[in-house]
Amino acid sequence: MASCMQKMNGLIHLSRAQVWSTARVLIPVNPHTAYQSRRHFFSRTSLLSRYTPSPRVRRAQQSRQVPPSPSEPPPEHESNNNGGPTPYNVPNITIGIVISACVGIWGWHSMYLAEYRRTGSRKIRETLEEFNKNMVMSLRNIQEGRSYTILTSTFTHFNTLHLAFNMMTLWSFGRPLVAFYGVPTFIILWVGSGIAGGALQAYAWSNNGPYHAHQAVGASGSIFGMLAVLTCITPKAQVALFWIPMTLRASTILTVAFSVAAISQDWLPFLGHWDHLGGMAFGAFWWLIALRRGRMGPKSALRNFL
């Protein structure tokens, strides 16, 4: 009540025009006129400055932006299959974990093998035998109920050169797949291609010689599955096969042709040619039924990896 009396006392000393303009704000006579006088304080501009703009406004703002010049560096993020940004460290960390596991298993086995050769310890020999039963794929292990070795053998490498070649190839092919489709799809490709390649290799062994003479290790089947998917995505991307530049399509065709010729002519029998073909077949099949119609990042993301 006291505040109202003070306002009325202030109006006594004003002229008629001043009283009328002030009173229209205090007690609006025409609601439309009052709304127009208040519109300035609640305008769209003031609201957009305080809150997140709507999708329509964001699209309008983006349309007015100047596109970057070709000389500018690529952005720090590329879109993933979920529509959000995928930092480059996500593919690096994912593939780095797999490489660390492979290198760790190789280092553990190499250390124990060197110690056994130096000392001939019976305990170390038993440890290595258990390792071969659980981490090496062979028909003996499969027929004795250890079918999981088809998958665990993809993390095992005995030869340093074999390990280095597979890990460099995994680093090149695995990261763009994680950037395109995410970690779950990479895991499906790794597991599915490894199992498909190992199963096909074991089937070939069962029709060729004594089962105890065949064993296999390495991530080749999984890696060739990734090669098949990348070839389906962007067949004209440039890669280097044994340091020879060529497209992904050409490298895949040469790999398939060499594997088929090696199987028919019995070249390099210590290599898992059936494993390579089985891994590639699963990669192409999975792309066809699950990835071809799914959402994925732009193909320009491959430029950051290949």
TrEMBL record:
User: Which residues belong to the signal peptide in this entry?
Assistant: none
Q: How does it sit in the membrane?
A: Multi-pass membrane protein
Keyword field: Hydrolase, Membrane, Transmembrane, Transmembrane helix
Its transmembrane ranges are 93-114, 177-200, 212-233, 240-264, 270-289
The primary location reported for this protein is membrane
Q: Where is the Peptidase S54 rhomboid domain?
A: 146-292
Q: Which GO terms describe its cellular component?
A: membrane
Identify its protein family. Answer: Belongs to the peptidase S54 family.
Q: What is this protein called?
A: Peptidase S54 rhomboid domain-containing protein
Fetch the Pfam families from UniProt: Rhomboid
Q: Region (Disordered): which ranges?
A: 52-86
- Species source reads Amorphotheca resinae ATCC 22711
| Cellular location(s) | Membrane
A GO molecular function annotation here is: serine-type endopeptidase activity
